[in-house]
Design goal:
Length: about 425
Protein backbone atom coordinates (compact mmCIF):
# COMPACT_ATOMS: atom_id res chain seq x y z
CA UNK A 1 0.00 0.00 0.00
CA UNK A 2 1.10 3.59 -0.68
CA UNK A 3 0.94 6.09 2.15
CA UNK A 4 0.54 9.80 1.68
CA UNK A 5 3.81 11.67 2.29
CA UNK A 6 3.85 15.40 2.94
CA UNK A 7 6.61 17.84 3.76
CA UNK A 8 6.35 21.25 5.39
CA UNK A 9 9.05 22.39 2.95
CA UNK A 10 6.85 21.71 -0.08
CA UNK A 11 4.83 24.37 -1.86
CA UNK A 12 1.15 24.12 -1.07
CA UNK A 13 1.67 22.22 2.19
CA UNK A 14 -0.83 24.32 4.16
CA UNK A 15 -3.60 23.68 1.64
CA UNK A 16 -2.85 19.96 1.54
CA UNK A 17 -2.88 19.74 5.35
CA UNK A 18 -6.17 21.61 5.53
CA UNK A 19 -7.75 19.27 2.97
CA UNK A 20 -6.40 16.21 4.79
CA UNK A 21 -7.64 17.17 8.24
CA UNK A 22 -10.92 18.80 7.28
CA UNK A 23 -13.89 16.74 8.38
CA UNK A 24 -17.39 18.06 8.06
CA UNK A 25 -20.06 15.69 9.21
CA UNK A 26 -22.49 16.05 6.36
CA UNK A 27 -25.98 16.06 7.82
CA UNK A 28 -27.78 13.64 5.54
CA UNK A 29 -31.21 15.06 4.77
CA UNK A 30 -32.69 11.56 4.61
CA UNK A 31 -31.32 10.67 8.05
CA UNK A 32 -32.64 13.95 9.44
CA UNK A 33 -36.14 13.27 8.11
CA UNK A 34 -36.24 9.70 9.43
CA UNK A 35 -35.00 10.75 12.85
CA UNK A 36 -37.42 13.66 13.03
CA UNK A 37 -40.35 11.35 12.32
CA UNK A 38 -39.17 8.79 14.88
CA UNK A 39 -38.80 11.44 17.58
CA UNK A 40 -42.24 12.88 16.79
CA UNK A 41 -43.81 9.42 16.97
CA UNK A 42 -42.17 8.61 20.31
CA UNK A 43 -43.29 11.95 21.74
CA UNK A 44 -46.83 11.30 20.55
CA UNK A 45 -47.25 7.58 21.19
CA UNK A 46 -44.59 6.78 23.77
CA UNK A 47 -44.00 3.07 24.44
CA UNK A 48 -46.09 1.99 21.45
CA UNK A 49 -43.81 3.86 19.03
CA UNK A 50 -40.64 2.72 20.78
CA UNK A 51 -41.78 -0.89 20.56
CA UNK A 52 -42.85 -0.59 16.91
CA UNK A 53 -39.52 0.87 15.81
CA UNK A 54 -37.59 -1.68 17.88
CA UNK A 55 -39.47 -4.50 16.19
CA UNK A 56 -38.84 -2.95 12.79
CA UNK A 57 -35.17 -2.03 13.12
CA UNK A 58 -33.82 -4.37 15.82
CA UNK A 59 -36.10 -7.36 15.23
CA UNK A 60 -37.16 -7.57 18.88
CA UNK A 61 -39.94 -9.99 19.74
CA UNK A 62 -41.01 -8.48 23.07
CA UNK A 63 -44.66 -7.62 23.70
CA UNK A 64 -43.87 -4.49 25.69
CA UNK A 65 -41.04 -2.06 26.40
CA UNK A 66 -41.12 -3.22 30.00
CA UNK A 67 -40.14 -6.70 28.80
CA UNK A 68 -37.00 -5.17 27.28
CA UNK A 69 -35.66 -4.10 30.66
CA UNK A 70 -32.94 -6.29 32.15
CA UNK A 71 -33.56 -6.90 35.84
CA UNK A 72 -31.00 -5.98 38.46
CA UNK A 73 -30.64 -9.68 39.29
CA UNK A 74 -29.88 -10.59 35.69
CA UNK A 75 -27.45 -7.68 35.46
CA UNK A 76 -25.50 -8.97 38.45
CA UNK A 77 -25.63 -12.51 37.10
CA UNK A 78 -23.95 -11.29 33.92
CA UNK A 79 -20.67 -11.30 35.83
CA UNK A 80 -20.89 -15.10 35.79
CA UNK A 81 -21.22 -15.15 32.00
CA UNK A 82 -17.72 -13.84 31.31
CA UNK A 83 -14.33 -15.37 32.01
CA UNK A 84 -12.51 -14.70 35.27
CA UNK A 85 -9.80 -12.93 33.28
CA UNK A 86 -12.34 -10.60 31.65
CA UNK A 87 -14.02 -9.94 34.99
CA UNK A 88 -10.69 -9.12 36.63
CA UNK A 89 -9.74 -6.77 33.77
CA UNK A 90 -13.07 -4.92 34.03
CA UNK A 91 -12.72 -4.54 37.81
CA UNK A 92 -9.15 -3.28 37.54
CA UNK A 93 -9.97 -0.83 34.76
CA UNK A 94 -13.04 0.40 36.65
CA UNK A 95 -10.94 0.99 39.76
CA UNK A 96 -8.40 3.04 37.86
CA UNK A 97 -11.09 5.07 36.07
CA UNK A 98 -12.91 5.69 39.36
CA UNK A 99 -9.78 6.85 41.20
CA UNK A 100 -8.88 9.30 38.44
CA UNK A 101 -12.36 10.79 38.23
CA UNK A 102 -12.73 11.16 41.99
CA UNK A 103 -10.09 13.88 41.74
CA UNK A 104 -12.35 15.86 39.38
CA UNK A 105 -15.25 16.11 41.80
CA UNK A 106 -15.98 19.76 42.54
CA UNK A 107 -17.22 21.03 45.92
CA UNK A 108 -19.60 23.78 46.87
CA UNK A 109 -18.10 26.98 48.30
CA UNK A 110 -19.06 30.31 49.84
CA UNK A 111 -17.32 33.43 51.10
CA UNK A 112 -18.37 36.38 53.25
CA UNK A 113 -17.95 40.09 52.55
CA UNK A 114 -17.30 42.68 55.23
CA UNK A 115 -20.95 43.80 55.44
CA UNK A 116 -22.18 40.24 56.01
CA UNK A 117 -23.22 39.46 52.46
CA UNK A 118 -22.45 35.85 51.55
CA UNK A 119 -21.84 34.65 48.02
CA UNK A 120 -21.04 31.22 46.72
CA UNK A 121 -21.69 28.29 44.47
CA UNK A 122 -23.54 25.08 45.15
CA UNK A 123 -22.43 22.06 43.14
CA UNK A 124 -24.98 19.27 42.75
CA UNK A 125 -25.32 16.20 40.53
CA UNK A 126 -27.79 15.72 37.71
CA UNK A 127 -30.73 13.59 38.82
CA UNK A 128 -30.88 11.07 35.99
CA UNK A 129 -28.53 10.32 33.07
CA UNK A 130 -28.99 8.11 30.00
CA UNK A 131 -26.08 6.15 28.51
CA UNK A 132 -26.26 4.90 24.93
CA UNK A 133 -24.07 1.88 24.16
CA UNK A 134 -23.86 0.68 20.53
CA UNK A 135 -24.56 -2.93 19.65
CA UNK A 136 -24.22 -5.02 16.53
CA UNK A 137 -20.79 -5.27 14.93
CA UNK A 138 -18.79 -4.60 18.08
CA UNK A 139 -19.18 -4.53 21.87
CA UNK A 140 -18.00 -1.57 23.92
CA UNK A 141 -17.70 -2.44 27.62
CA UNK A 142 -15.00 0.22 27.91
CA UNK A 143 -17.54 2.88 26.87
CA UNK A 144 -19.84 1.72 29.66
CA UNK A 145 -17.07 2.21 32.23
CA UNK A 146 -15.95 5.57 30.81
CA UNK A 147 -19.46 7.03 30.75
CA UNK A 148 -21.15 5.51 33.78
CA UNK A 149 -18.34 5.77 36.35
CA UNK A 150 -17.89 9.57 36.12
CA UNK A 151 -21.67 9.96 36.47
CA UNK A 152 -21.68 7.84 39.62
CA UNK A 153 -18.62 9.62 41.03
CA UNK A 154 -20.48 12.90 40.44
CA UNK A 155 -23.31 11.54 42.58
CA UNK A 156 -25.96 10.95 39.91
CA UNK A 157 -28.66 8.91 41.70
CA UNK A 158 -29.90 7.05 38.62
CA UNK A 159 -27.98 6.00 35.50
CA UNK A 160 -29.99 4.33 32.72
CA UNK A 161 -28.35 2.40 29.91
CA UNK A 162 -29.87 1.60 26.52
CA UNK A 163 -28.26 -0.78 24.05
CA UNK A 164 -29.83 -2.68 21.15
CA UNK A 165 -27.89 -5.88 21.70
CA UNK A 166 -25.74 -5.84 24.86
CA UNK A 167 -23.38 -8.79 25.11
CA UNK A 168 -22.36 -10.39 28.46
CA UNK A 169 -19.25 -8.23 28.80
CA UNK A 170 -21.22 -5.01 28.25
CA UNK A 171 -23.74 -6.09 30.88
CA UNK A 172 -20.94 -7.06 33.27
CA UNK A 173 -19.36 -3.64 32.79
CA UNK A 174 -22.73 -2.03 33.57
CA UNK A 175 -22.99 -4.03 36.78
CA UNK A 176 -19.45 -3.07 37.84
CA UNK A 177 -19.94 0.61 36.96
CA UNK A 178 -23.14 0.87 38.99
CA UNK A 179 -25.68 1.33 36.17
CA UNK A 180 -29.14 1.29 37.75
CA UNK A 181 -31.42 0.22 34.89
CA UNK A 182 -30.75 -1.35 31.48
CA UNK A 183 -33.13 -1.44 28.50
CA UNK A 184 -32.50 -3.48 25.36
CA UNK A 185 -33.30 -0.56 23.07
CA UNK A 186 -31.33 1.14 20.33
CA UNK A 187 -31.48 3.71 17.57
CA UNK A 188 -33.17 7.08 17.44
CA UNK A 189 -36.20 5.65 19.26
CA UNK A 190 -34.05 4.91 22.32
CA UNK A 191 -32.65 8.44 22.31
CA UNK A 192 -36.15 9.90 21.97
CA UNK A 193 -37.44 7.73 24.82
CA UNK A 194 -34.64 8.98 27.07
CA UNK A 195 -35.14 12.59 26.04
CA UNK A 196 -38.93 12.78 26.47
CA UNK A 197 -39.77 9.79 28.64
CA UNK A 198 -42.46 7.16 28.12
CA UNK A 199 -44.67 5.17 30.45
CA UNK A 200 -41.76 2.75 30.92
CA UNK A 201 -38.55 4.67 30.19
CA UNK A 202 -37.97 7.63 32.52
CA UNK A 203 -36.96 10.98 31.09
CA UNK A 204 -33.30 11.83 31.72
CA UNK A 205 -31.44 15.11 32.12
CA UNK A 206 -28.51 14.24 29.86
CA UNK A 207 -27.68 11.64 27.20
CA UNK A 208 -24.11 10.45 26.68
CA UNK A 209 -22.42 7.77 24.62
CA UNK A 210 -21.59 7.07 20.97
CA UNK A 211 -23.80 5.68 18.22
CA UNK A 212 -24.39 5.47 14.50
CA UNK A 213 -25.54 8.32 12.24
CA UNK A 214 -29.16 7.96 13.38
CA UNK A 215 -28.21 8.04 17.05
CA UNK A 216 -25.93 11.06 16.53
CA UNK A 217 -28.66 12.89 14.62
CA UNK A 218 -31.21 12.05 17.31
CA UNK A 219 -28.92 13.47 19.98
CA UNK A 220 -28.51 16.59 17.87
CA UNK A 221 -32.28 17.01 17.51
CA UNK A 222 -33.18 16.46 21.19
CA UNK A 223 -30.41 18.75 22.48
CA UNK A 224 -32.06 21.56 24.37
CA UNK A 225 -34.71 19.28 25.80
CA UNK A 226 -31.86 17.38 27.43
CA UNK A 227 -28.13 17.86 27.61
CA UNK A 228 -25.77 15.76 25.50
CA UNK A 229 -22.07 15.04 25.76
CA UNK A 230 -20.99 15.83 22.18
CA UNK A 231 -21.50 14.92 18.54
CA UNK A 232 -18.35 12.92 17.95
CA UNK A 233 -16.54 12.66 14.63
CA UNK A 234 -14.18 9.88 13.49
CA UNK A 235 -11.40 8.80 15.83
CA UNK A 236 -7.98 10.47 15.42
CA UNK A 237 -4.39 9.96 16.45
CA UNK A 238 -1.46 12.27 15.81
CA UNK A 239 2.03 11.11 16.74
CA UNK A 240 5.10 13.32 17.03
CA UNK A 241 8.18 11.12 16.72
CA UNK A 242 11.89 11.90 17.02
CA UNK A 243 13.08 8.46 15.96
CA UNK A 244 13.74 7.18 19.49
CA UNK A 245 10.70 4.86 19.54
CA UNK A 246 10.75 1.55 17.67
CA UNK A 247 9.17 1.97 14.26
CA UNK A 248 6.93 -1.08 14.67
CA UNK A 249 5.51 0.36 17.91
CA UNK A 250 4.54 3.57 16.13
CA UNK A 251 3.06 1.63 13.21
CA UNK A 252 0.84 -0.31 15.60
CA UNK A 253 -0.24 2.91 17.33
CA UNK A 254 -1.31 4.32 13.96
CA UNK A 255 -3.22 1.09 13.28
CA UNK A 256 -4.96 1.34 16.66
CA UNK A 257 -6.98 4.31 15.44
CA UNK A 258 -7.17 3.45 11.76
CA UNK A 259 -8.94 0.16 12.59
CA UNK A 260 -11.95 2.01 14.04
CA UNK A 261 -13.41 2.82 10.63
CA UNK A 262 -12.52 4.04 7.17
CA UNK A 263 -12.91 7.70 8.20
CA UNK A 264 -10.53 7.49 11.16
CA UNK A 265 -7.35 9.52 10.91
CA UNK A 266 -3.77 8.52 11.75
CA UNK A 267 -0.88 10.96 11.21
CA UNK A 268 2.83 10.81 12.07
CA UNK A 269 4.96 13.97 12.23
CA UNK A 270 8.76 13.74 12.39
CA UNK A 271 11.79 15.82 11.43
CA UNK A 272 13.57 12.59 10.46
CA UNK A 273 12.88 11.45 6.91
CA UNK A 274 14.64 8.13 7.51
CA UNK A 275 12.41 7.48 10.52
CA UNK A 276 9.31 8.08 8.40
CA UNK A 277 10.70 5.55 5.94
CA UNK A 278 11.21 3.01 8.73
CA UNK A 279 7.66 3.46 10.01
CA UNK A 280 6.28 3.14 6.50
CA UNK A 281 8.19 -0.12 6.04
CA UNK A 282 6.71 -1.47 9.28
CA UNK A 283 3.22 -0.43 8.24
CA UNK A 284 3.59 -2.36 4.98
CA UNK A 285 4.96 -5.38 6.83
CA UNK A 286 2.52 -5.50 9.75
CA UNK A 287 -0.74 -4.63 8.03
CA UNK A 288 -1.13 -8.15 6.65
CA UNK A 289 -1.20 -9.49 10.21
CA UNK A 290 -4.15 -7.31 11.16
CA UNK A 291 -7.62 -8.92 11.25
CA UNK A 292 -9.11 -5.52 10.30
CA UNK A 293 -6.53 -4.84 7.57
CA UNK A 294 -9.10 -3.70 5.00
CA UNK A 295 -10.43 -1.01 7.30
CA UNK A 296 -6.92 0.06 8.30
CA UNK A 297 -5.76 0.25 4.68
CA UNK A 298 -8.81 2.27 3.65
CA UNK A 299 -8.40 4.67 6.58
CA UNK A 300 -4.69 5.25 5.94
CA UNK A 301 -5.25 5.72 2.22
CA UNK A 302 -8.09 8.22 2.70
CA UNK A 303 -6.99 10.27 5.70
CA UNK A 304 -3.58 9.03 6.90
CA UNK A 305 -0.22 10.73 6.36
CA UNK A 306 3.48 10.70 7.19
CA UNK A 307 4.63 14.32 7.44
CA UNK A 308 8.24 15.47 7.34
CA UNK A 309 8.75 18.60 9.46
CA UNK A 310 11.70 20.93 9.84
CA UNK A 311 11.87 20.37 13.59
CA UNK A 312 9.99 19.02 16.59
CA UNK A 313 8.93 22.60 17.38
CA UNK A 314 7.32 22.88 13.95
CA UNK A 315 5.61 19.53 14.54
CA UNK A 316 4.09 21.03 17.70
CA UNK A 317 2.83 24.03 15.72
CA UNK A 318 1.13 21.73 13.22
CA UNK A 319 -0.38 19.67 16.03
CA UNK A 320 -1.89 22.84 17.49
CA UNK A 321 -3.48 23.60 14.13
CA UNK A 322 -5.01 20.13 13.95
CA UNK A 323 -6.07 19.91 17.66
CA UNK A 324 -6.15 16.08 17.59
CA UNK A 325 -8.26 13.79 19.72
CA UNK A 326 -5.22 11.70 20.75
CA UNK A 327 -1.70 13.11 20.69
CA UNK A 328 1.31 10.87 21.31
CA UNK A 329 4.65 12.51 22.11
CA UNK A 330 6.80 9.54 21.15
CA UNK A 331 10.04 11.36 21.85
CA UNK A 332 12.97 11.05 24.25
CA UNK A 333 12.03 14.22 26.19
CA UNK A 334 8.23 14.66 26.02
CA UNK A 335 8.22 17.12 28.92
CA UNK A 336 10.19 19.60 26.81
CA UNK A 337 7.47 19.62 24.12
CA UNK A 338 4.42 19.73 26.38
CA UNK A 339 4.57 23.52 27.03
CA UNK A 340 4.48 24.09 23.26
CA UNK A 341 1.18 22.20 22.86
CA UNK A 342 -2.14 23.92 23.45
CA UNK A 343 -4.86 21.79 21.88
CA UNK A 344 -5.41 18.03 22.29
CA UNK A 345 -8.06 15.79 23.79
CA UNK A 346 -5.48 13.62 25.54
CA UNK A 347 -1.68 13.77 25.48
CA UNK A 348 0.39 10.59 25.82
CA UNK A 349 3.93 11.31 27.01
CA UNK A 350 6.83 9.05 26.08
CA UNK A 351 7.36 5.86 24.14
CA UNK A 352 5.65 3.62 26.72
CA UNK A 353 2.38 5.57 26.68
CA UNK A 354 0.35 3.91 23.95
CA UNK A 355 -3.02 5.39 23.10
CA UNK A 356 -4.53 1.92 23.46
CA UNK A 357 -3.83 1.92 27.21
CA UNK A 358 -5.64 5.25 27.46
CA UNK A 359 -8.61 3.79 25.62
CA UNK A 360 -9.12 1.06 28.18
CA UNK A 361 -7.51 1.32 31.56
CA UNK A 362 -5.10 4.22 32.24
CA UNK A 363 -7.81 6.09 34.14
CA UNK A 364 -8.52 9.34 32.24
CA UNK A 365 -11.65 9.32 30.11
CA UNK A 366 -11.50 8.06 26.54
CA UNK A 367 -14.51 10.17 25.47
CA UNK A 368 -12.58 12.99 23.82
CA UNK A 369 -13.23 15.96 21.52
CA UNK A 370 -12.68 15.21 17.82
CA UNK A 371 -12.53 17.12 14.52
CA UNK A 372 -10.56 20.03 15.95
CA UNK A 373 -13.02 20.69 18.79
CA UNK A 374 -10.20 20.18 21.31
CA UNK A 375 -9.55 23.88 20.67
CA UNK A 376 -12.48 24.69 22.94
CA UNK A 377 -13.79 21.52 24.59
CA UNK A 378 -12.62 18.88 27.03
CA UNK A 379 -12.74 15.13 27.71
CA UNK A 380 -15.87 13.77 29.35
CA UNK A 381 -15.56 14.04 33.11
CA UNK A 382 -17.31 14.28 36.44
CA UNK A 383 -17.95 17.96 35.72
CA UNK A 384 -20.26 16.93 32.86
CA UNK A 385 -22.60 15.30 35.38
CA UNK A 386 -22.63 18.14 37.89
CA UNK A 387 -24.39 21.48 37.70
CA UNK A 388 -23.70 24.69 39.57
CA UNK A 389 -26.12 27.09 41.24
CA UNK A 390 -25.07 30.54 42.40
CA UNK A 391 -25.81 31.41 46.05
CA UNK A 392 -26.55 35.05 46.93
CA UNK A 393 -27.38 36.08 50.51
CA UNK A 394 -27.31 39.91 50.68
CA UNK A 395 -27.13 41.45 54.14
CA UNK A 396 -29.15 44.52 55.22
CA UNK A 397 -26.06 46.72 54.92
CA UNK A 398 -25.18 45.11 51.58
CA UNK A 399 -28.67 45.82 50.22
CA UNK A 400 -28.12 49.57 50.69
CA UNK A 401 -24.73 49.64 49.02
CA UNK A 402 -25.47 47.16 46.22
CA UNK A 403 -28.98 48.52 45.70
CA UNK A 404 -27.65 51.93 44.72
CA UNK A 405 -25.13 50.29 42.36
CA UNK A 406 -27.79 48.05 40.78
CA UNK A 407 -30.18 50.97 40.41
CA UNK A 408 -27.66 53.03 38.47
CA UNK A 409 -26.92 50.16 36.09
CA UNK A 410 -30.59 49.19 35.66
CA UNK A 411 -31.66 52.75 34.81
CA UNK A 412 -28.82 52.93 32.31
CA UNK A 413 -30.32 49.90 30.57
CA UNK A 414 -33.87 51.25 30.77
CA UNK A 415 -35.15 48.61 33.22
CA UNK A 416 -36.97 50.74 35.77
CA UNK A 417 -38.68 47.93 37.67
CA UNK A 418 -35.24 46.42 38.24
CA UNK A 419 -34.09 49.78 39.56
CA UNK A 420 -37.15 50.11 41.76
CA UNK A 421 -36.70 46.64 43.24
CA UNK A 422 -33.16 47.55 44.19
CA UNK A 423 -33.98 51.09 45.40
CA UNK A 424 -36.90 50.04 47.62
CA UNK A 425 -34.43 48.29 49.90
CA UNK A 426 -31.91 51.12 50.09
CA UNK A 427 -33.85 52.93 52.79
CA UNK A 428 -33.22 50.00 55.02
CA UNK A 429 -36.89 49.48 55.98
CA UNK A 430 -37.97 45.92 56.65
Amino acid sequence: MKLRRLSTRSAGFDAKLAALTRYEAAQDAGVQRVVRSIIAAVRRRGDAAVLAYSRRFDRVKARSVAALEISGTDLRLSLKNISSRQKSALHQAAGRIRRFHQRQRAKSWTYAEADGTRLGQRVSPLERVGLYVPGGKAAYPSSVLMNAIPAKVAGVPEVLMVSPNPDPMVLAAAAIAGVDRVFVLGGAQAVAALAYGTATVPRVDKIVGPGNAYVAEAKRQVFGQVGIDMIAGPSEILIIGDGSTRADWVAMDLFSQAEHDELAQAILLSPSSSYLNDVEDEIKRLIYEMPRQKIIAASLAARGALIHTRSLAEACEISNRIAPEHLELSVARPGALLPKLRHAGAVFLGRWSSEAIGDYCAGPNHVLPTSGTARYSSPLGVYDFQKRSSLIAVSRRGARRLGRLASTLARGEGFYAHAGAAEIRTAGRR
